[in-house]
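User: quick one - fold this with glycine bound?
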Amino acid sequence: MNPIFKVCGVSPVYMGRASELLRELLPEGRVVVVADERVARLYPSLVADYKTIAVPAGESFKNLETILTLCLRFIEAGVDRSTFILGIGGGIATDMAGFAASIYMRGLKFGFVSTTLLGQVDASVGGKNGVNVDGYKNMAGTFTQPQFVICDTEMLSTLPDREFRAGLAEVVKTAVMADRGLFERLEQTDFATLRSDRTLLEEVIRTSVAIKAGIVGRDEREAGERRKLNLGHTLAHALEKSTQRFNHGEAVAIGLRLVADAAVKAGLMPCEDRDRLAALLRKLGFDLELPVSMPTLLAAAAKDKKNKDGVLRVVFPLSIGTCEVREITAEDFGRLF
Ligand code: GLY
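Assistant: Sure. Structure tokens for the protein plus glycine:
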């Protein structure tokens, strides 16, 4: 089976049945699985042959305490340098599996079966493995490319609608960031069709992964172009920090709408494009109402530890399909709302 892409020339991404691909891709020798506890329950046959460590699902568990627990479980299980770690789950599980594997004994080889749409189109691809610290997103982590990423679209059929929709937020982000054609394809369809039409869904995933693989190949360590993948995330992260109500994708949808508003106010984006974006997000079922006040959200964004001297790095959409990273003070950003 050929990969659909090879990220940075070393990290192939496959689309197909996980059980079949794993037979080809797993190395000889010991394999230890780190799996989202829900996924381990849903797919017992996938993990049956391996020592399996379940990790709790949910952003609140994506922290250094869980990484410490994983390292302790690795020691108990006799994991050594020759052990291959297989992470199975959505972006949260693969982030934790990848992070633990890349620091344990100074680094083990690892690969992923990505089981959520959000993981397949974004989080599990590209070699970022991070956890949150004190509620700040992805403050500790590594850039280490997995040996492979498997996107099994059949596994998406068991995802709750809410989780599936969360992945669509990252697809919409990708389209606004870099692919007008993808955006138009999304405009021509709807949530129910994307859930049921496997060919369309695979095309959407393939296109999203292609864009991400291209960007990561040119800027693996996020010195420039990779920052564009954070479109909508400045305020999404602030929203996730200010309220526990949203999953990541839901916060990204609101973050996209808000940054498009700001881009229109700054004269960077035509209002028709902003309106098309809001209409698409609503059609896909996102609630775009802001549950906290704008000053509260801006204060949380201004406090983000990744800012330098009060300057935010914000990705502004310029149109459907193009965007630009700008440095802007928190005060000036606040004036755009
Ligand atoms: N999820 C953003 C990135 O991989 O850079």
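One thing worth noting: Residues 122, 126, 128, 226, 229 surround glycine (CB under 6 Å).
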